[in-house]
Amino acid sequence: MKAKIILISLIFLFYFFYFWWYSYFYFPKSKNPNVFYILSDKKEKLNFFDVEILKIQSENGTVFLFLPKNSNLNLQPVILVFHGFGWCKKNQVLPQKEISYLAKKGYIVILPCYQEGFSSLFFRKNLLSRAEKLSLEGISKLKEIAPENDFSKFSILGVSLGGAVATNFFSFSLPKPKVLILIAPAPGFPLIPSKLYGIPFARAKELPENIILIGILAEKDRISSFNQVKKIFLEAKSKEKYLFLIPSDNYGTPPLVSNHSIIFGNLGPINYFGTYQIIEKGLNCAFENKDCEFLRGEKTFSLGKWSDGTEARKVIKIDLK
């Protein structure tokens, strides 16, 4: 009995450190403590909107609307965000600053709190049904507020577990999105079958052809499987599909760490000049026919520079041919 307890404990420790600690808490030390990251002045030049947050509650649960104030909501693009594991606690959105950032840039964000707790991942059909119902409630409320918004600029964004939910959108009665963005998508916990606990990815071939498919992966991530996600993108019939890998760089101070936690849930250089830049350029291409060269052009782009002139490691666009 004692031997079994020791064995189980060792397996648990391996699982925790190999997958979770590495993907959430591993922060390498700076190689050059006296070299600093040069924060671009691009952020200061942007025009930000103030944000109004509406919380809508029903028998199905809670859905949040993040609205850019003093903007014409009838014309603003709409992003439906499916959150990662455990984002909504006691009807509060944990990464509120990160979601608000999108609204500050002028996007209307609908965020349904589709998870009820740890046990909800055992009942994927109910979870997907709840995600759909709450999404429709959020869309319905937005139509009351902005009746002339025709959702012609509609996109879906899924983070972590929400990425798996987002791939199932075609089975939902939702407006047709022009863009599907998957950020570090994961169907559940590593080594645990998603059909048992989690949300399986939809079959890639069932994703629409006329959609821009964008993936953003973190380098230091063992929760989202690079090979699994790349396979989805290779098999998808979408005419435009782009998969980006954001690297870590501990050349200077502070280290730029690209992991499962930070890839979306942190307002730092990795996000401003990596994740959010990809999101914004992708939406501009789909909705305004602007910045398309960013997606279709160079295979890499820089995250910036260090104070000694050294260029930070470059974001890589994965070859999908």
Can you put this structure into words, describing what you see?
The protein has about 325 residues and is of the alpha/beta class. The protein is globular and about 60 Å long. The strands form three sheets. A ten-stranded mixed β-sheet has the order 2-3-7-4-8-9-10-11-14-12, sandwiched between helices. Strands 1-13 form a two-stranded antiparallel sheet. It has a two-stranded antiparallel sheet with strand order 5-6. It has seven helices and 14 strands.
> From the coordinates shown, what is the CATH architecture?
3-Layer(aba) Sandwich
What is the CA–CA distance across the termini? 53 Å
On the 0-100 scale, what is the average pLDDT? Answer: 89
Q: Name the overall outline.
A: globular
Order of helices and strands: HEEEEEEHEHEHEEHEHHEEE
Residues in helices, as a percent range: 25-40%
**Into which percentage range does the β-strand content fall?**
15-25%
Q: If helices are DSSP runs of H or I spanning 4 or more residues, what is the number of helices? A: 7
In the CATH scheme, the class would be Alpha Beta
- Contiguous low-pLDDT stretches (5 residues minimum) are 41-45
Count the E strands: 14
Biggest sheet: strand arrangement? 2-3-7-4-8-9-10-11-14-12
How many distinct folded domains? Answer: 1
Largest sheet: 10 strands, mixed
Q: Per CATH, what is the topology?
A: Rossmann fold
Alpha-carbon Rg, integer? 20 Å
